[in-house]
């Protein structure tokens, strides 16, 4: 469980679980919006996939994020 506070949070952080999960031998990551992405061959590949996803999200115009 991650108990680290994020920027902008003023209250104690909510419960957070890992973004990564395994089904059978395939790995996935999940987003805050409830989107699951995968399958990936390994947890390391899922971590790379998440980094790529977050990079693309940062490139989106602000109005598309709401």
Automatic annotation (TrEMBL):
* Boundaries of every DUF6316 domain copy: 6-57
Q: Which InterPro entries does the UniProt record give?
A: DUF6316
Q: Pfam families per the record?
A: DUF6316 (PF19837)
Q: Give the superkingdom in one word.
A: Bacteria
Name of the molecule in the record: DUF6316 domain-containing protein
Q: Give the organism, scientific name.
A: Marinobacter litoralis
């Amino acid at each position: 469980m991650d108990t680290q506070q994020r920027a902008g949070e003023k209250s104690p952080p909510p419960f957070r679980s890992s973004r990564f999960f395994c089904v059978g031998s395939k790995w996935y990551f999940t987003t805050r919006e409830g989107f699951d992405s995968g399958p990936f061959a390994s947890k390391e590949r899922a971590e790379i996939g998440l980094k790529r996803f977050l990079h693309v999200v940062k490139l989106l115009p602000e109005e598309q994020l709401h």
